[in-house]
Specification:
two-stranded antiparallel ribbon; three-stranded antiparallel β-sheet; Glycosyltransferase
């Protein structure tokens, strides 16, 4: 896989961005949120940068707020400079995003597996429990989870639910359930929440984007139900096939949005993971290979390529882009323990008993 992704160079780039306190911003100038911090942490762990990965996990635990959530910068709101090339963080808008909070479960489990350090799970288990409490407090009666924390007594119905974010939370709950079983802790309530979430994602699409914004133009809305295991088998392959030509630019990668001539490295790496989850290994490898022109000589990957103007845009190398490429390379070639965590369902929705399933081999070894 070294010919497709230089894992060491990507990890060096992430570690160079990491700050003394352990936090991993998007870029040197700033922008931080728990989800993208987690991408960097997992990349470091998979690459064997143990000290840096542990610093990232510890920072995440220290930064968690009392109710289990995290306040993060809204990177999408960050403007570009006068040249239209570089992000200018300034003082970004912030939010307490449920998906970003839930991703802590994925971050902890994937990092500890890669480091061969599941014995350290008790250290981070309280953080995972609080994060799951935060998520479940924002699940509606219909099963979807609103995208941000409510403001005081704000009704959940007044807050939108996002398809991609909810699919990601489906995987986060799975990771939390697996860790709960390792800790011999009750997980029935998490399993029930995940069942409801899976059902609404598959059967009640009207619960998403119900506040007027149609996000189906975003690639993440398309592939995340497959990547997260909400859809499997033929249903997963059918979903990818249905909009493949809308999003995939042959030879370049995956568009971030269907109506813009802009392929992005992170979305392409995640689509490769979705392809692996759907059993499309050749397509996954091709997607990663197509990103070769976006490799930066100094490490990491450029965020994206505007293929009409034929320019790198924006001129940034986010930590989370490097992390996503590391995880895709790892999953494709099985480089570290737990490499299949993100591309398979490890918890069935309706077991005979919550503890009836055998633990995956990489957890029970």
């Amino acid at each position: 896989m070294a010919g497709l992704v230089d894992i060491r160079a990507c990890a060096r780039h992430i570690e160079a961005l990491q700050r003394p306190g352990g936090d991993i911003p998007w870029i040197e100038a700033g922008i931080w949120d728990a989800w993208n911090h987690g991408e960097g942490a997992m990349g470091l762990a998979i690459a064997g940068r143990e000290t840096a990965a542990r610093r990232a996990l510890d920072h995440l635990a220290e930064r968690q707020e009392a109710d289990g959530g995290w306040t993060g910068d809204l990177g999408a709101s960050v403007p570009l400079d006068d040249t239209n090339r570089h992000l200018v963080p300034g003082t970004p808008d912030t939010a307490r995003d449920t998906n970003f909070t839930g991703y802590a479960a994925v971050t902890v489990l994937r990092s500890l597996l890669a480091l061969g350090a599941l014995s350290d799970l008790p250290r981070y288990w309280p953080m995972v429990q609080r994060a799951m409490d935060f998520i479940l407090a924002h699940q509606t009666l219909q099963g979807d989870i609103v995208w941000r924390a409510r403001d005081g007594d704000e009704p959940l119905e007044t807050i939108d639910s996002l398809r991609a974010g909810n699919a990601s939370l489906y995987k986060s709950l799975e990771c939390a359930i697996l860790m709960g079983r390792l800790m011999e802790a009750p997980v029935d309530h998490w399993a029930q929440a995940r069942r409801k979430l899976g059902a609404v994602l598959r059967e009640n699409d009207a619960r998403f984007d119900r506040k007027g914004t149609d996000r189906r133009r975003y690639a993440m809305d398309w592939y995340y139900p497959v990547l997260a295991g909400v859809l499997t088998g033929e249903a997963a392959r059918a979903r990818l096939y249905a909009r493949w030509t809308d999003f995939v630019k042959p030879g370049l990668g995956c568009r971030c949005v269907s109506d813009e001539p802009w392929v992005t490295a992170a979305e392409t790496a995640e689509l490769a993971l979705a392809c692996l989850a759907a059993g499309k290994r050749d397509q996954a490898r091709t997607l990663i290979a197509d990103l070769a022109p976006l490799k930066a000589r100094s490490g990491g990957y450029w965020m994206g390529w505007q293929f009409v103007e034929e320019v790198v845009w924006p001129y940034e190398r986010p930590s989370w882009t490097a992390g996503a490429l590391i995880m895709a390379a790892d999953a494709l070639d099985g480089l570290t323990p737990g490499s299949g965590l993100l591309v398979r369902n490890w918890v069935v929705e309706y077991p005979v008993r919550p503890d009836a399933e055998a633990l995956p081999a990489f957890l029970s070894a």
